[in-house]
Structure formats: C-alpha cells, structure tokens
Amino acid sequence: xxxxxxxxxxxxxxxxxxxxxxxxxxxxxxxxxxxxxxxxxxxxxxxxxxxxxxxxxxxxxxxxxxxxxxxxxxxxxxxxxxxxxxxxxxxxxxxxxxxxxxxxxxxxxxxxxxxxxxxxxxxxxxxxxxxxxxxxxxxxxxxxxxxxxxxxxxxxxxxxxxxxxxxxxxxxxxxxxxxxxxxxxxxxxxxxxxxxxxxxxxxxxxxxxxxxxxxxxxxxxxxxxxxxxxxxxxxxxxxxxxxxxxxxxxxxxxxxxxxxxxxxxxxxxxxxxxxxxxxxxxxxxxxxxxxxxxxxxxxxxxxxxxxxxxxxxx
Length: 314
Known about the structure:
Low-confidence stretches: 1-34, 295-303
Helix content: 10-25%
Number of strands: 15
Strand content: 15-25%
C-alpha cells in the first residue's frame, strides 16, 4: 500500500508540474504577442493624443500612459511615469503657400507654452484660418510672416518665421521644420533651440547640416522655416530636485549610468557620411493572378530499362 501511495503521489506531482509548465508557456506566449509600438512611427508610451477628424486649434484631450502598454497595462518603458497632465496643441506641420506670385502673409496672434513639447507655440492667422506653428527665437505677437513655394532666380532675404523652399534661401541660412520629401509634413528639426544650416547646393539638391552635425541633401523644392526654434535655454534649465524630475514625467532609475566607464556611458564615434534624400519609395505593384485554361497538364515519367528518363508526354 505504501508503494502504491508513493506512485499515485508521483503521478499527481507530475500532472501539477505539467499544468504549471503549460500555464508558463501560455503566459510567455502572451507576452511575446504584445503589439508594441514600432520605432519611428511617432507613437510612444508617454501619452496618447485623441485627434479629431478635422484640424482644430482647440486644446486636445490626452491619455497619459506613464510608461505602460495601452493594451495590457504592463510597464514597458521604465523611465517614464507620472508627470503633470497637459493639454496638447495640434501643430499644423505643412506650411503651404502660393506656387506663383507674391507670398502669402500671415500674422502672429499669440505665443503660448505647450507642456507636451519643449518649444513654444505660435498662434497664426491668415484669412479666416487659425493654426499653430512652432515659434522662432525672436518671434512676438503682431509679427507678419510670409509663406511661398516660389524659387526665384536670386535668393530671397527672408526673416524669422518665413517659410520658403530650400532652393530659394541663400547659403548659411538657419532653418528648422524641414520637409523630408516635397509636399509632405515638416518632419525634421523640431526641438527647442535647434536649427539647421544650409551649407551648399549642387544640381537640384540643397545640403543642410543638422543639429547633430550630420549632412543631408534635400530636394530644392522642400519647404523649410527660417530661424531658430524658440526656448533656446531649454538645455541649460536647472532641474534642481528629484520632485521636479517627477513632475516632468521621469521615473528614477539610479545606479545604472556612469559617464565614461559604465554600461550606458558615452561613446565617441565618427559622423556618418552625407546622405542624399532621394524620392520616396514607390508603392508595391499590385499582385497579378494568372489563370490557365483547363487542359491536362499531367506528365508521366517513365524510366527505361537502361536507367534513362523518358521525355514527359503532354
């Protein structure tokens, strides 16, 4: 009897082990199937902005994620957490003007602070339209700014806040909000106090040195805004306390970083060579499905006695 009880006990233990292992496998599979935001898609684990269908200057509602996945609620980004909740001001990234004739004149109505970004935001009016753009370093209410897509024979002398194609601006001009491809929203140089510099021109390309000192060659029809982004002293702002850091939305992770010899220390590398921004990647061609008429395609392989394979019969 004692031996039978030991055997049954072993069976129960093995079943329990198998059950727990299955649960662990299911949990691991569930963790690997989490749809995390892909890098470069503009979606982070800090907040979700609820955008309406049409553009509006009304401050938008925001859902703060605090580093958690929106589907599972698990902590994914450990350095994000808490923070003061701010409304989001929708920036109109595309500066579109007339393709011929005089430039479009817009008026700066107000300069405001947006807690969801480092730079200040300017409320601009043109005709019966209101929109938000990134404010430049010396921009103030009442300024008149120009927008045009014309590339004249002689480079224009633009002021801060004016938007022109890169081919219309002279060399050594400071620019920001640069279009990566003509006609698309301005993707590049948005951070506070940053600017790019027009270095040289060749063919129908204009070379711009980015804030990281990298050089990119854009098409001369790509739009750019003249000047330096506002809030120049943002990188010199003194945080002062750990509580202030929590208000900014950062969760402390002490003991992980050292400046020179740690795992996350700085690394000095050479700058990569200049990259030419060509046309965007074309869309994939449609899949063509071909059908054959119904006839006998069976082929029979008959082996001859000497080992050679006879030609198939259609």
